[in-house]
Amino acid sequence: MLHNASKIVSSQKSFTIHFVEHSAHSEDTNNPPLLDPKIMASRSPKRRLHHISGRHALSKISQSRDGDTLQIVPDMGGCLVRDGRIFARCSISHSDYGAVAVVAPSDMPVGVDLEPRNRKVSQGAFNLILNEEEQNDVHDEHSRLRIWMSKEAISKALGIGMSISKDITHDGKSWTAMGSRWSINSHDVKISDVDHIAVIASRITEET
Predict the structure, then answer these.
(1) Phi/psi of residue 115, each to 5°?
(2) Which partner for 92 in 18, 54, 108, 114 could form a disulfide, CB atoms 3.0-4.6 Å apart?
(3) Which residues make beta-bridge pairs with 110?
(4) Can you tell me the distance from the alpha carbon of 164 to that of 177, in angstroms, rounded to the nearest whole number?
């Protein structure tokens, strides 16, 4: 199924999320804006399809057009730029079944991660993103995936790779990274009949 775009409110500002199936664009010849020429030149049909699906999802909710660019800026994350000006923030994620895009106002960093619900994170991979205190806690598979996805979404919102993941921590109320606090919204969605989780990170700007 295709998931309809839905609007979610966070910290008194809104962001919009949209899901698509890869199969919906497997034979689509109408390319959306914001395609990356380097990825489109890839020899991998799978990589190109995932890229096109993500850009289709983004184009549905961003009002992007030819000439706009998507730039990943350190400390700012995904930025949609028109005529040299950032007009929105955004993030995209893919699984083997579909893609998700999130768009937020130009002053609201946002990041998203999409994974099948049954994805397992190995202990070795998990240890790479955990700090020493977190490694002493016991996590079930569901908790492992949520922690992995939360750190991934926050790192994308910051425009920085998972190298900072051990410095992304949770205090029981919110996540903290690079001196700022972050909220996490989780959404369950079925894509190509496979249960997925989408995790969206947005920066907290006001005490609630």
Answers:
(1) -145, 150
(2) 54
(3) 202
(4) 8
Sign for the pseudo-dihedral over CA of 173, 178, 149, 22: positive
pLDDT along the chain (208 residues), means of 10: 46 78 82 92 92 94 93 94 96 96 95 95 84 73 87 95 89 89 93 95 75
User: What distance in Å separates the CA atoms of residue 3 and residue 155, rounded to the nearest whole number?
Assistant: 25
Contact 93, 112 (CB under 8 A): yes
Phi and psi at residue 2, in whole multiples of 5°?
-95, 135
Facing residues of 101 across strands?
18, 92
**Global pTM?**
0.89
What are the φ/ψ torsions at residue 155 (nearest 5 degrees)? -65, -35
d(CA 116, CA 102): 18
Q: What angle do CA 115, 120, 125 make, to 5 degrees?
A: 100
How far apart CA 76 and CA 157 sit, in angstroms, is: 7
First to last CA, the chain: 36
Q: Which residues contact 66 (CB under 8 A, 6 or more apart)?
A: 33
Distance of CA 128 to CAs 38, 192, 203, Å? 29, 31, 24
Nearest to 97 by CA among 148, 23, 13, 18: 23
Domain ranges for the chain, please list them.
6-203
